[in-house]
Design brief:
The protein is an alpha+beta fold. Helices cover 33% and strands 21% of the residues. The protein contains 10 helices and 9 strands. Strands 3-4-2-1-5-9-8 form a 7-stranded mixed beta sheet. The longest helix is centred in the last third of the chain and has 15 residues. The protein is globular and about 50 Å long.
Length: 269
């Protein structure tokens, strides 16, 4: 959506104060651990853009809580690229020259303006995974992003699991369940036949660029909307729905979602 289209669809500017009020009305409060997936354009025309949204989230959650966002990069082995693919004879050169992942500077890819802005705040920390990093701010930020293992980066040794252990909240701020990374944790825990996929990415080790090999679960998201809808239908006590700015927004218990979805995957995949 263009900025002109966003303005035309907005009755008034969406301010930081409006976002704060709407978040509190939804039930987001001081001291929680909140994992946010977001769409800036869904909020309407925000006065100040993405920083206004980040500021509002930080104000509502406060330093007594922890704000977490996915900051995935897309750094991966070009052999598997599909959107778009590259010629086969480019692959070796790409592996040899791709800029390595550096948490402080590597931009996000496909995450949207809000997490890209969030990761640039000076007091935000980011995990070391070159492909599926997460950024965090607040009380438990450091332990949540620490020790993010390369293999199975959305599984048990990931920030998603740390949010689960802290009984965190998933906030879909104008986003749908197709963006809900916690469902990937549920995939790891579900009892169904799975495949693993080899991959690679460039990182910095001991001051030098190195290409590492890693292993991932063969992840799917085609049924994420279905499992999300089923969870909301069967566990309304764990879900709050409302509007933040112009965005349809859902807050839910991550732990209950992951437990439900892991069983659902086991029965439906």
């Amino acid at each position: 959506m263009t900025e002109r289209e966003t303005i035309e669809q907005s009755d008034e500017p969406i301010t930081t104060e409006r976002i704060e009020t709407d978040l509190r009305t939804l039930g987001v409060s001081v001291g929680g651990t909140v994992l946010v997936h977001s769409s800036l354009s869904a909020l309407g025309w925000v006065s100040g853009g993405a920083p206004a949204v980040v500021d509002a989230l930080r104000s509502v959650i406060s330093e007594d809580g922890t704000l977490v966002m996915p900051t995935h990069t897309g750094l991966s082995d070009p052999e598997g690229w599909q959107n778009p693919p590259v010629p086969d004879d480019w692959e070796d050169e790409i592996r040899a020259t791709m800029t390595p992942y550096r948490p402080e500077i590597t931009p996000t890819r496909g995450m949207g303006a809000i997490p890209e802005t969030f990761r640039n705040y000076p007091d935000v920390v980011r995990s070391e995974h070159p492909q599926v990093s997460f950024a965090a701010w607040g009380k438990d930020a450091e332990p949540i992003v620490a020790d993010h293992e390369y293999d199975f980066g959305l599984g048990e040794n990931s920030p998603l699991s740390d949010v689960y252990d802290r009984n965190g909240t998933v906030l879909l701020l104008g986003a749908g369940h197709d963006s809900n990374t916690s469902l990937h944790l549920a995939e790891h825990r579900g009892d169904y036949e799975k495949e693993t996929v080899p991959d690679g990415a460039p990182v910095m080790k001991d001051g030098e660029r190195k290409w590492i090999q890693l292993t991932e679960l063969g992840l799917e998201d085609d049924d994420f909307e279905r499992v999300g809808e089923a969870f909301e239908r069967e566990h309304p006590e764990a879900v709050a729905r409302g509007q933040v700015g112009n965005a349809e927004t859902t807050a839910m218990s991550q732990r209950k979602l992951v437990d439900f979805a892991s069983e659902w995957f086991g029965s439906n995949r």
